[in-house]
Write a structure and sequence with these properties.
The chain has helices at about 25-35, 55-60; strands spanning about 15-20, 40-45. By secondary structure, it is an alpha+beta fold. The chain has a two-stranded parallel ribbon with strand order 1-2. Strand 1 (about 15-20), helix 1 and strand 2 form a beta-alpha-beta unit.
């Protein structure tokens, strides 16, 4: 049985990162619904930031990973 976070003795929160490669809009909506169903007191959403010199940036420049544009994120 799934125990709601609100039923625990801890104050739990969640950080979500939008714009991850390979996550469809439907999967994102499903993930957000699941987080909302946990009964958390706080959740934050951050957009993925791809920094120059990182492995992810290099992969994106080589076309090995497809990053969503700003509007999609």
């Amino acid at each position: 049985m799934k125990r709601l976070a609100a039923d625990t003795c801890f104050r739990l929160g969640c950080d979500l990162i939008a714009g991850l490669p390979g996550v469809s809009p439907d999967q994102w909506r499903s993930d957000v619904r699941e987080i909302c169903d946990l009964g958390l007191k706080h959740a934050s959403v951050y957009a993925l930031s791809v920094e120059d010199g990182t492995r992810l940036c290099g992969m994106a420049k080589k076309g090995k990973v497809d990053l969503p544009d700003e509007d999609e994120t």
